[in-house]
Specification:
about 100 residues; alpha+beta; two-stranded antiparallel sheet; about 20% helix
């Protein structure tokens, strides 16, 4: 289960989660005159869901582009799971700073 980094609402389906995060981000920007607030970092359990154990450090997963494409590599944001290009320092969806584990 994933929780929205802005409001804490939980989702089972990744598609519903991604759609909600984009919509929630726009709503937050509208409330703050175009500035995006920092997402909350703590886990907010959904009513009725069991407590989750502490997560292990996120590992970046690089995927090579398809033949004929630019070959740009990308990773997944450790907080919201959205794809990030290898050159990005901040996630475009939740604003989280990219973390690299070596």
């Amino acid at each position: 289960m994933r929780s929205c980094p802005f409001c804490g609402k939980g989702f089972e389906s990744i598609d519903e989660y991604r759609t909600h995060v984009l919509r929630c981000r726009l709503e937050q920007m509208n409330k703050t005159s175009g500035r995006l607030p920092a997402p909350s970092r703590e886990f907010k359990p959904v009513k009725g869901s069991p407590e989750l154990p502490a997560a292990a450090p996120a590992q970046e997963t690089f995927i090579q582009g398809k033949p004929g494409e630019s070959g740009e590599q990308f990773a997944f944001c450790p907080f919201c799971g959205i794809e990030m290009f290898s050159g990005q320092l901040f996630c475009g969806t939740c604003g989280a700073k990219r973390m690299v584990y070596e």
